[in-house]
Amino acid sequence: MILNAKKESYERCSPPFEERVEEGSFSLDAEWQFQHDNSQMRYFVEPDKTPNFDLRNGYSDRDIQGDENFIKTLEHILQWILANKSELMQRTAASSVSSPLADFDFVTSRGRLTKVFCTPYDDELEWSLAITKFQGVFYINEVETESACCYRQNRTESHKENMYWGYMFKQYTRADEVDGVPDSTGVVTYNEAFCSVVRTCLSDHRLLFSGEVDCRDRENAEAPPACYVELKISREINTVKKRSKFHRFKLLKWWAQSFLLGVPSIVVGFRNDVGRVLSVRTYRTTEIPQLVQGEYRSLAWKPEVCMNFCSDFLSFVKRVVIEDDPHVVYLFSRKAGSSVTFTEHRNSTYCFLPDWYVTEMR
């Protein structure tokens, strides 16, 4: 049994997708440790349209904290679930199932869903998702592919500097306090993060997942996630080929990331080859598909295809993952240009639900 990943198979009306509702949030400190608070919340400070930010500032001598090679797991959202177990139980009191997650079918992170969303339009995209069923809930974790591992272990100095540039753009455009100002001279930390936990429903699939949030718009009084802002950098676009690539691939991924979490706007700093941000543009998440389709109709990606593929993938998981046991993992894999396949593993290194979580949930 396989799942076809060709985009033509999913060109139909969009499935129902409920508004994302924030259930809670948490922070990650400089040691990548879970903190059940909003200590890492940052506030957006709108820059000039032509700011001339120097993203290379401090790269050679600044204190950089954190490990860019850190592989993310589901551990932090599991910690959030346990920290909010009693509140979740109260909301499911009317259910016949005695579980704090009785209202959900899937628990995962935004990053896993983003890869699934983008699959029909990226023939080169490869991923492996380890999925286990426990107390009726499907947990989706990511397993690093061989190609991803090779890329991570062989990053060039240029790649490492480009990662730093992304964090520096955030230094220039975020403040620690709601009435504060950015500090572009401070310590750059790769591990610190503020994460939102949202619930939604795609078709009949009830989802609970977490995602990193760059900052909050201090001028926006709406409730989260409608007040959140995503920050990105990209190379300046000065040719038709670069523009096409930007619209077809980069905007697809950015749209999927923000659309999934319910983040309404993406602020992009366009930089030159020596790390100077020459211009800044804000994209409304909901308007990105129309922007792309208006310019590249024959080659444009369609949001309904992304949503339909994700919905069908989750249905595929429900059909395949039958055994309810945290020691049984089904590994779903997608190779470049191929369909989605799966293998079953028992008591293997793919098991990922920690004993402390399983024990506390029983």
Which features does this protein show?
single chain, 362 residues, alpha/beta, nine-stranded mixed beta sheet, 29% helix, globular
Would you write up a description of this structure?
The chain is of the alpha/beta class and 362 residues long. 29% of the residues lie in helices and 27% in strands. It has helices at residues 75-83, 85-91, 110-118, 146-153, 157-173, 240-261, 288-295, 303-320, 355-361, and strands at 21-28, 34-35, 43-44, 53-54, 64-65, 106-109, 127-134, 137-143, 174-175, 188-189, 193-202, 205-213, 215-217, 228-235, 265-271, 276-284, 328-334, 340-346. The strands form three sheets. Strands 2-1-11-12-6-8-7-17-18 form a nine-stranded mixed β-sheet. Strands 4-16-15-14-13-3-9 form a seven-stranded mixed β-sheet. Strand 1 (21-28) and strand 2 form a beta hairpin. The longest helix has 22 residues, at 240-261. The relative contact order is 0.21.
